[in-house]
Structures are given as C-alpha cells and as structure tokens.
Model the fold of this input.
Amino acid sequence: MAQLSPQLKQATPVVATHGEGVYLYDEAGTRHLDFTAGIGVTSTGHCHPKVVEAAQRQVGNLIHGQYTTIMHKPLQQLTQKLGEVLPQGLDSLFFANSGSEAAEAALRLARQATGRPNIIVFQGGFHGRTVAAASMTTSGTKFKAGFSPLMPGVVVSPFPNPSMYRDLGWGQEQVTDFALKQLDLVLQTQSSPADTAAFMVEPVLGEGGYVPGNERFFAGLRERADKHGILLAIDEVQTGFGRTGKYWGLDHFRGEDSAVTPDIQMFAKGIASGFPISGIAARSEIMEKAWPGSQGGTYGANAVACAAALATLDVIAEENLVANADARGEQLRAALRRIAADYPHIVDVRGLGLMIGVEFADAHGQPDTATAAAVQKEAAKRGLLLLTCGPWTEVVRFIPALVVNEQQVDDAAEIFAGAV
Ligand code: PLP
Done:
C-alpha cells in the first residue's frame, strides 16, 4: 500500500473533510479553529462563497491556457487589478505558481537586469525550498542540509532581530545600527557593489520567527541600493494582501516622506485563497531585461487560479479585511501578552496584524523548542490549530484567515492559555 513520504508528516492531527471560514471539520465531525490558514494562504477563510463561485464559473469556461501561448481574460483582469494595489511604479508583472518560484524569478531577473552575480540575503530569511530559493534561505539548516552544493553567489548579512541580541540588552535601534553597519562591511569585504545584483529581504521574517523589520532598516537598504545600483527585492509572499494589517508588509516601514519602494516584489500565498498562483512585480525597465523564454513555465497564471485571485482581491476590499487584520491582530497580541505576563517561559509576543509569534525560552533564556511543540500539540487537542517557526522552532505562530472575528480571537486566546 502506498503512503505519503516522511517529509510530508503533518504538524497537526487533523484529517480534514471540509472547511468553512476559520474552521476545519474532520471525519468525526469535530470542529477545529484553524489558526494556520494553510500557512497564511486561505486569506478569505476556507471556501469563501465568492471565491468558490468564481472558481466554479471559470472551471466551466476555461481551465488552462498556457500563458506564453494564449492570453485569457482572468489573467488580463488580474494584471489590471494588481496594478491598483501594488506599490507605485511596479507596473510589469510575471506569474508563477508558488512562493519559491517567485523567489527564483526575482533572483533570475535581478541577475539578468544588472549583469551581477551576487544576492545579499538577511539572516533568518526564508524564500522557499527549490535549490535557488533554499540557497537564499537562512532560517534553519533543515531547509538546505544534505543536498549541497547549493547555488553560489549568496551572501548573508544580519537582519535587525532584537530577540537574537536579547542577552546583550540591545533594542531595535542598536540592532538596526548593527545590521546596517554589517551590511556596509559585507559590501566592502564579501560582495562588492559591482558584484551585487540585489538585496532580497522579507518585511517581516516569516519562517525565521515572525520578526518585523523597521523603517530605518528599510530606508538604509533603499539608500544603499540607490547608491550602488543594487536592486531591492522585497519578498511579500507571506506578508502580502493584508496579512500584516496593511496591504503590504513594507507599508509599515515606508516612512512619512521616504517612499521606500521595492524594485522587485514577490507575492503568493494570500492572493487566491488557496489556489496556487504567485508572481513578481517590477518596474518595466527592469522586467524588460528578462528575455522571453528565460522565465515562466507550463502552469503559471492558471485561469482558475486567476479567477480565484480576482474574487479574493474583491473580498479583501469589500469586507475590509486589511482593517480587520489590523484590529483582530491587536486584540490577539493584547490577549497573548496578558497570558505571557503569568508565564515566564514566554519571552516575547510580537508581530504585525494577523502574523503573530509567541517566543518560548527556558529558565536560562535558551530557545525552548520542546515547550513550543508541547503547547502546539496541546492546543490542537483542545481544538486550536497552530504552527511553529523560528530558527529553533521555538516560536508558536498565529496566522488565521483575515476574516477571523472578535469572538474567534477570544476563543483562540482562551484555548492557548489553557494549553500553556
Ligand atoms: N517566501 C516567503 C516569505 C515564504 O514565507 C514562503 C513560504 O512560506 C516562500 C517564499 C516559499 O513559498 P512556497 O512554499 O509557496 O514555495
């Protein structure tokens, strides 16, 4: 009898039969509060009626039309619609199927556009599991151990992550100073500007532990990118489409006057409520440097996925899901901080919008992977599905659908408190 490979071992015990909103149901009819959302994908909740309707309609019209062979209406419409929500200037779009492919596409484009070999990535970043994406990933050795040699040309610089420097008593200002000085050193000693195609960075570290960046850091990256002709590639795969309580994760850090805009932006996950579609956006003069045939594949911008994405973007706007993510995120962080106050092993509650991490440490301040795993397991037993993240998987993360309501947030916090 065939079985799933060990790499596909599930993080939760649920065998789902169907989903509705923030709930999943199993074969026994038990309801589970799903605060994993397919790792931040089902942004409008499971099976939102408008998304289901749009996908069903499209299935009856056209399922697939390979996008370098024919154009189809959902792709035309999605391109227009994304133009309304993307940062100004990012007017040329390329589509693929997964976040990893988007990261690969950004990497290839950055090299093609600059003719330079290196990519500088930031410690704790996650960009996916294909060989190129894994090469740019530094959020855990499990993503790259055992299949070297990886892609050359990746250089790592620190991300301003206060939790890594807690022992030193450093706050955000100091870690940001440190990160930018180290970046200058990297440009001086490891990857000269003439060899550096792009900085590749997430606005909020995802797999790396749900650590938000900050305005000064991104302004510093933009300044150095401008000075040296390096492209700023922002990975919004997990942070995009309202997840952080603003439309894009980087919107938190653009600054009042400083319009920190990416040169290349990746997107995926929350765009289509579960249908596989991803892409990159860039200024036309950059995108034009990628010649036909050098990017793309058979399935990119599948017609049904495009239709589901269009419906998803409509629902995000109509139901004010960005504002809801902001409000419900604040509510959840406040509740989690109250729980943390009684429990010394929780050393940090952080995040933006509905991308929230709770960090566990032992009595010596060391990452407490075992407790994070035990809490996740106990919460699942009590009907709340959660994931972990962080370099030691010492962080329990909350990433529910953006449609989550006040009561459901209270329920999740109560179950979590019981599990803790
Ligand atoms: N980039 C970021 C920031 C991610 O969070 C992820 C997935 O979690 C990826 C890229 C890779 O996406 P995928 O798993 O769809 O390949």
